């Protein structure tokens, strides 16, 4: 196991890359696409209703393009990683700002940390995606099943993958 597989397992990182690439391609097919997704070691789940035929075409293209070396498809600007990184940066900055004994310095530090966290969230989040939460090396990965389910009026689509 590599050191960068410690945060998330290899299969989860691969599925996260496939999830991002699929959503990117699907967004090109459906400009009004409004979904969220969550990856795990067995595949990923899309939260939202999508035509399964379009999803399958997007999945096949995403898998093919990642396997052909288009690693940038694994990085998505709206990934939750970017949000988590931004919130973490702002929290750390806030804690450091609160350590000041002067109220005026505290307010300035809080404002500066919020702006800095917001500004750094996307580039640092993309760095974290690239090195820790996605893995675009999908050699031997294939999609085994796509299943739609509904729970309490919400649609979920489960995409299952295996590594051969």
Low-confidence stretches are 1-5
Query: Strand-and-helix sequence, N→C?
Result: HEEHHHEE
What count of helical segments does DSSP give? 4
Give the biggest beta sheet: 4 strands, antiparallel
Percent of residues in helices comes to 40-55%
Mean pLDDT: 91
For the biggest β-sheet, the strand order reads 1-2-4-3
Share of residues in strands? 15-25%
Counted beta strands: 4
CATH evolutionary superfamily of the largest domain: Threonyl-trna Synthetase, Chain A, domain 2
Output the structural class.
alpha+beta
Second-tier CATH architecture of the largest domain? 2-Layer Sandwich
Work out the oligomeric state of the chains in this entry. Answer: single chain
Number of domains: 2
CATH topology of the largest domain: Threonyl-tRNA Synthetase, Chain A, domain 2
CATH class of the largest domain: Alpha Beta
Radius of gyration, in Å, reads 19 Å
Shape summary: elongated
Report on this model:
This protein is of the alpha+beta class and 164 residues long. The protein has four helices and four strands; from the N terminus they run αββαααββ. Helices cover 52% and strands 19% of the residues. β1 (36-40) and β2 form a beta hairpin. It is elongated. It has two domains: 8-75 and 135-163, Threonyl-tRNA Synthetase, Chain A, domain 2 (2-Layer Sandwich), CATH 3.30.980.10; 80-128, no CATH class. A four-stranded antiparallel beta sheet has the order 1-2-4-3. The protein starts with 9 loop residues before the first helix and ends with a strand.
């Amino acid at each position: 196991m590599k050191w960068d597989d410690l945060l998330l397992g290899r299969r989860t990182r691969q599925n996260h890359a496939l999830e991002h690439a699929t959503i990117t391609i699907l967004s090109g097919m459906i400009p009004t696409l409004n979904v969220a997704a969550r990856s795990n070691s067995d595949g990923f789940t899309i939260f939202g209703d999508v035509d399964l035929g379009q999803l399958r075409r997007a999945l096949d293209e995403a898998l093919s393009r990642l396997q052909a070396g288009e690693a940038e498809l694994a990085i998505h600007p709206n990934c939750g990683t970017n949000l988590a990184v931004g919130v973490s940066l702002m929290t750390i900055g806030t804690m450091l700002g609160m350590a000041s004994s002067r109220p005026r310095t505290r307010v300035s530090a809080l404002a500066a940390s919020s702006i800095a966290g917001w500004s750094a969230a996307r580039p640092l989040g993309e760095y974290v995606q690239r090195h820790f939460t996605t893995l675009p090396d999908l050699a031997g990965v294939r999609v085994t099943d796509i299943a739609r389910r509904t729970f309490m009026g919400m649609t979920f689509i489960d995409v299952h993958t295996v590594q051969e």
